[in-house]
Amino acid sequence: MENTDFQAKMQIYTDSKQRQLKPIIFVGHSLGGAVATLATLWVLEKRLRQSSPLCITFGSPLVGDVGLVEAVGRENWAGNFCHVVSKHDIVPRMLLAPSESVAEPLIAILPYWQGIMTNGGKTVPDSSIQDAVRTLLNNVLQYTYTVTNYGPDSPRELDGLIKRSPYRPFGTYIFCSGEGAACIDNSETVLKILILTMQSHEKPYDDIVQDCLSEHVEYGSVLSHIIEKSISGRRTAKPDSESSDKMGMSLQLEAIGVDAQNDHAPIALQMARDIENKHSRNVAKLAIELSEKQCIMTELEWSKERSEKENAITYYDSFRKHEDMDTNLRRERLAGFWDEIIEMWERHELPSDFQTQNKWINAGNTYRRLVEPLDIAHYYRMFEGKGNYLSDGRPTRHKVLEKWMEEKEKTRSSRGRSGRTKLASLTQDSCFWAQVEEALKEMKNLEQDEHQKLGNLEMFEGYATKMINDLNISADVFLEGSSFMKWWKEWKEYKRNRFPEWRSPLYEIMETRGCKG
C-alpha cells in the first residue's frame, strides 16, 4: 500500500484541517474482504486519525496467524472488524486446511464466481467446477474433522498426515443460516464454529457442495433474509432449556444452523463464556487489590514529602544512602502486585484490551514514576560502581508498563493539549535517576576513554535540558544535596576549567534563570 495511491486518497479522509472527520468504512467480499482487512489494519497501524475505521467483510478468507490475533487484541482493534459468514460458504473456511491443498481447486473455481458477480444471475456449473468444489470441500472437511478429534493446538502433527493451519480469526463474526444469525467475538470460539458449521449433516452431501458454490455469491440474499427474520421475530429455543444461559446458547446454535445433537458446539460457546467470566472476576479482584495498594502509594508520597521538607533531601537520595525498612517493604509489596498483573496478562488471564484501559494505564504510570526511583536507588546501593540499571537491572514490570503507556499515547489525540505551566509533581521519566547515576560514573572515570565519555555526558546534558524545559521534572531534583546537583557541579567545574567562556542551554537554566520550581 506504500507504493500505490492509496495513501494519497486516504489523506482526503484523514486531513486534520477538516471540521468533521469523515467516517472510514472498508467493505469487501471474498478476496476483497481480505484486502479490506489489510487496508483497515494499515490505517490503524499508521494511526492516521483519532477516529477508528470500520471493516465489514462478506465471505472473506482468514487473514493472519496467532501473532496477528494477539496484536489486534493488544491494540484493542478487534471491535473494528465485522465478518459476515454464511453457513456453507467455503471461502471463510478454506484456509483451515493447508494452503497447498486448496490452491488448485480454488484457482479452478474463482473464474466461475467472477462470472456470476460480473454478469449477474446464476449459471449451472460444469462438471469440472463441481469436481473442484468437491475436492476443496473434502480437503477442508478432512482437516476440520481431525481438529474436532484432536484439537487445533494438538502437539502431534497427526502422524504426519495433516499439517495444522496457522490461520486464526479475529474481530466479530456474524454467522448466518436459514434460521437467523449469531454474533461471536471470541477467537477460539469463532474457530470452532467455523469448523462445526462445516460438519452439519442436515443436507445430502451434493446439496452442501452446491451451497458451497452458491452461498459465496449470495450475501445480498442472506442479509435480506436475516433482516426479514429479525423483523418478524421468529426465534425458538430448545424446550428443555434449563436456564437463561442454556437458552441463550440454544438460540445461538439454532441461528447459525448447528445440529442440535452436536455436543462440541455448546461446549465451545460455554468455554467462551467461562473465559469471559474468568477475565471479569480477575479484573474485579485486581481492582479491589489496587484500592488497597493505593493506600501504600499514599504512604510513600507522604514519606517523599517528609524527606524533602524536613530533611531537605530527595527521597531517591535518602533511600540510596540507607534502606528504610518500611519504605522497602512497601516497595516490595507494590512490586509483587504489579508483577502478578503482568504475569496474568502474559498468561491471557485478563481481557485482551486490559492494557489499553485508562484505569490501569494511569495506575501503572503513577506507580512507575513514584516507585521506580526506589528500585533504581536499591540497585545502585547493592551494586555500587558495577552494572547499569538501564541495561542490566530494570525489572520487566516497568518495561511493560512503560510500553503500555507509549502504545496508549499513540492513540490519543494531541488536539486541545496544552504544555505544562509548572514543574511536574513526579519526574515523568521514571528512569531519570538511573541516567543521573550513569552520568556520575562517566564523570568519575572521565580520564579513561575521554572522547567517548564526553559524548555520553553531553547527551545527558541535552536530555536533562529538554526535561527541564518541558517541565517534566519535579522540583526535588534541584535540592542542594541531590545526585543531579552533584553531577551538575562536577560537570560545570570540568567544562569551565577547560573552557572558561563555556555556556550551554543548561548553564543558562541552572545559573542564570534558576530552576527551583
What is the distance, rounded to the nearest whole angstrom, between the alpha carbons of the first and last residues? 49 Å
The helix tally amounts to 20
Shape: elongated
Strand portion: 5-15%
What is the residue-averaged pLDDT? 83
Write the layout of secondary structure elements.
Layout: H1 6-14, E1 25-29, H2 31-46, E2 54-58, H3 66-74, E3 81-86, H4 91-94, H5 99-119, H6 127-150, E4 172-177, E5 180-184, H7 187-198, H8 205-214, H9 219-232, H10 244-256, H11 264-310, H12 315-321, H13 325-346, H14 358-382, H15 389-393, H16 396-411, H17 432-444, H18 450-469, H19 483-498, H20 505-513
Parallel strand pairs: 1-2, 2-3, 3-4
Antiparallel strand pairs: 4-5
Helix pairs in contact: 5-6, 6-7, 6-8, 7-11, 11-13, 11-14, 12-14, 13-14, 14-16, 14-17, 17-18, 17-19
Give a description of the structure:
The chain has helices at 6-14, 31-46, 66-74, 91-94, 99-119, 127-150, 187-198, 205-214, 219-232, 244-256, 264-310, 315-321, 325-346, 358-382, 389-393, 396-411, 432-444, 450-469, 483-498, 505-513; strands spanning 25-29, 54-58, 81-86, 172-177, 180-184. The chain is mainly alpha-helical. The chain has a five-stranded mixed beta sheet.
